[in-house]
TrEMBL record:
This is Hsp20 family protein. Belongs to the small heat shock protein (HSP20) family. Residues 23-126 form the SHSP domain. SUPFAM superfamilies: HSP20-like chaperones. PROSITE patterns: SHSP (PS01031). It comes from the Bacteria. CDD domains: ACD_sHsps_p23-like.
Length: 126
């Protein structure tokens, strides 16, 4: 087997293979990290080179879907998935207070918890 020593060629071909793999159905491997805190959890998704406009975050009941799409400049109507992952959220999450922030080339989803512990319920009289 003969080794290719032309670094410029290797750099160009590696970038081409990565792009064609992604467009051909492969996916970019992101860094996904869940940090649990006292009052909230923070889901961090880092996809190098992906702009904030390429992300989409969807909440359906307790399922959170995070995806990133590649838009073709030549064919704006065409989209190729770069990343797609579903996360099942626990029932003690305040779904109305989720917050999504893009900062330092990473997406952060703040997932606040509902207050824990017993609470008295109001009794209505009819």
């Amino acid at each position: 087997m003969k080794l290719i020593k032309d670094k410029k060629f290797l750099k160009n071909i590696a970038q081409y293979i990565d792009v064609t793999n992604t467009i051909g159905g492969g996916v970019v491997q992101p860094q996904v990290n869940m940090v649990k805190r006292k009052k909230e959890a923070i889901l961090q998704v880092a996809l190098p080179g992906v702009s904030p406009e390429q992300y989409q975050v969807l909440l359906d009941k307790n399922q959170l879907t995070v995806m990133a799409l590649h838009h073709s400049a030549q064919h704006p109507e065409m989209q190729a998935p770069l990343f797609h992952q579903n996360f099942l959220l626990p029932p003690h999450v305040d779904f109305n207070s989720l917050k999504v922030v893009h900062e330092n080339q990473a997406l952060r989803i703040h997932i606040p918890y509902l207050p824990q512990g017993p609470r008295f319920l109001e009794i209505e009289q009819w």
